[in-house]
Amino acid sequence: MTTPSGIAPPAPDPVPTFSRTIERSLVHRAAVSEVLVTDLVPTGKEDFVAGAQLPLGHGYFSDHLRSPVSYDFLLLLEAARQAGTAASHRQLDIPQGTVFLVHNWSIEIDDPAALDPGPRPGELEMTGSVHRLAGRNGRLRGVDSPVSLRIGGREIGRARITVGAASGDDYTKLRFLQRKSTPPLTSDLGGVVRSRPADANAVGRRNPSNVVLGEPRRADGAISAQVEPRFENASLFDHTYDHIPAMVLTEAARQLAHLAGVPVSAAVTGCTADFTRFVELDAPLVATAALPGSGSLPGSFPGSFPGSLSVDFLQDGASAGRITLSFAPSPAGAAGSGEVEAS
After folding, report:
1. 61, 136, 199, 324: which could form a disulfide with 310 (CB 3.0–4.6 Å)?
2. Rounded distance between C-alpha atoms, residue 222 and residue 217, angstroms
């Protein structure tokens, strides 16, 4: 078929399928149950359409106090990360075994109502691309992957993820050179003694295993807490790590925002995160945010709350990154929208 001008209209993007997940190694996951991507269809050298099934119940992504429990922004970011990772291997011919490290990621959600789940698992369609980033010597330095997100034909937002890339051998050498020692592994630290954790309800979680912060401290108009995730949490640490990954840091920022006064009923609608160094497992990591208002303890924010909040991460006296989150209030009368003690 051609248009009146004689030019054939562009072919529509293919529709991804949702019947089975792709090979887990393509998305750097150990457990098949943690694979979200169900299809990946190249539409150009760097372009793709991908599908991901969004679970109705997940031990981490669905563990929230807000009701209804909408699909979480970190679930969408993880789906976008998996799609970009798989496309990098399949379309850019980056060898499997290459280590990807998130330098920055962001997401903007324009239609939060589209994230309310129905009676069946959600079907997320992603249209994106992967762009090879090269160093001055032409060697692979990383990959940039912008992705648009759609559910049920509704455009819900967009994500962008930039990762660094290194071969397994180069990564091992880099880590040793930076530390002057071999880093410990999460598999070695499962029984590490932690401080008293933050209250699960205060950070919007039902399951204490999903709490990643210690008890908060408030001083000089700021709130801070140590980042102390449970390494045995298989959703946050699907495989063995020698550092704290981007998802855990982003979750820490969200939990600190709730401790700062953002109601646990509020959903994240935007995230911009920059990670500036490896976050080591064997040194204290502190997350800090400015308290809204005068600096005194905000017990609640009746009628309003900070629309956005930035969290800084500090380890060994150096910045490890900054994450800024934007929030949208829940509909009036929704469960979990009452006052929450910031304790």
Report:
1. 324
2. 8
Residue 3's pLDDT band (boundaries 50, 70, 90)? Answer: low
Closest by Cα among 254, 196, 247 to 65: 254
Which residues on adjacent β-strands are paired with residue 218?
Answer: 223
| DSSP H or E segment with residue 84 | helix 73-91
> If you search the block for the tokens 């903007």, which residue do you land on?
108
DSSP state letter for 6: S
* Residue with tokens 């291997």, as numbered in its chain: 89
Nearest to 46 by CA among 14, 83, 100: 83
Nearby residues of 237 by Cβ (< 8 Å), 6 or more positions away: 186, 229, 231, 245, 248
- Neighbouring-strand partners of residue 104: 162, 274
Q: How far apart are CA 121 and CA 81, in angstroms?
A: 19
pTM comes to 0.89
- Distance CA(4)–CA(111), nearest Å, equals 36
Identify the sign of the CA torsion 161, 198, 308, 281: negative
Mean pLDDT of 132-160: 94
